[in-house]
Design goal:
Elements lengths: L6 E6 L2 E6 L10 H16 L5 E6 L10 H6 L19 H7 L8 H20 L4 E5 L2 E3 L2 H7 L2 E4 L4 E3 L14 H5 L1 H8 L4 E3 H6 L12 H13 L3 H17 L2 H15 L3 H13 L1 H9 L13
Parallel strand pairs: 2-3, 3-4, 4-6, 5-7
Antiparallel strand pairs: 1-2, 7-8
């Protein structure tokens, strides 16, 4: 996979290692990144020598969500990090820009066609027949949580933060995994406030399988994936399929459709338009800072119990 631009892919022993590699942009999500993620997951899934996948990120954190320089500041006009899309399709940057113009008419089905493809890429981790372990350091917020929560097991550094701040404005979690991971009450606690959890809090809440100190994260993660990799591949596949069926039986797919539609609506409310316009005017960092100022957290892990 020599043409990868947004991540790296390597296999060591029975472990496939997919590492997001846009550290200068906080591993921000673009259409190119999602296309490459799907491709890497499929390659690992088809490789008979791979028993487990390890998803991680280079740089200061795992993933800071969607690349808002492209999507908020530029309204999508700058394209999707080199990804080519058919002219006039829902992935065409100009189609997305026009569909987000507050002076025009928003077509929710164009928006859904675009975002549902992003969900499909995130869910490649869930649908992969093999176990996926996600290693989180630094930060995992907004759209980054879609990748983490679609993985099977989360190893989160104790001092990392994980949460969905766009619940405050301009977003809805498209994969809708929070309730299934945490239960309805704790999911509401996070989504009603947009607060984040530290890795230690994520372990207490049952979101993380382990929350070692930052210095021990790599070692503890390697111990876990190596233990998983010792098992026969067919046993691992059966165990994952068995557990995943319980989520399907609870209406998992239907919740994702609603979450994806709501994400489009959230970006086209009066508040959503105002956030985007502020990002275009002052830059997304300033827009996010102003969004978070009333909560007193400036994007930090602020849950107080």
């Amino acid at each position: 996979m020599s043409d990868l631009e947004t991540m790296t892919y390597a296999v060591t022993g029975n472990i496939a290692r997919i590492t997001l590699d846009r550290p200068e942009r906080g591993n921000g999500i673009t259409r190119r990144l999602l296309t490459e993620l799907e491709g890497c997951v499929e390659r690992a899934d088809l490789d008979p020598g791979v028993h487990v996948l390890l998803l991680a990120g280079n740089g200061k954190g795992f993933c800071g969500g969607y690349d808002l320089v492209e999507s908020a500041e530029g309204q999508g006009r700058t394209g999707q990090a080199g990804e080519q899309a058919p002219t006039g399709s829902p992935l065409d940057p100009m189609v997305m820009a026009v569909n987000h113009d507050p002076a025009g008419t928003w077509d929710p089905m164009v928006d859904y066609a675009m975002m549902s493809r992003n969900v499909r890429a995130f869910m490649s981790l869930f649908h992969c027949s093999k176990p996926v372990v996600c290693r989180v350091h630094g930060f995992c917020v907004a759209g980054g949580t879609d990748m983490a929560l679609c993985s099977d097991l989360l190893m989160i550094a104790a001092d990392a933060k994980i949460g969905y701040p766009p619940a405050r404005v301009w977003g809805s979690p498209t994969t809708s995994m929070w309730a299934y991971r945490l239960g309805p009450q704790r999911a509401k606690r996070l989504l009603f406030t947009g607060d984040s959890l530290s890795g230690a809090e994520a372990l207490e809440w049952g979101l993380a399988i382990e929350a070692p100190a930052h210095a021990d994260l790599d070692e503890r993660t390697e111990i876990l994936v190596e233990r998983i990799a010792r098992n026969p591949l067919n046993q691992l596949q059966m165990m994952k399929l068995l557990v995943n069926q319980s989520l399907h039986a609870q209406g998992f797919h239907e919740a994702q459709i609603l979450g994806t539609v709501f994400d489009g609506i959230a970006r086209h409310t009066a508040e959503g338009y105002a956030f985007q316009q502020r990002a275009a005017q002052a830059g997304f960092k300033q827009a996010v800072r102003e969004r978070d100022e009333p909560f007193g957290d400036s994007g930090a892990s602020t849950f107080k119990g």
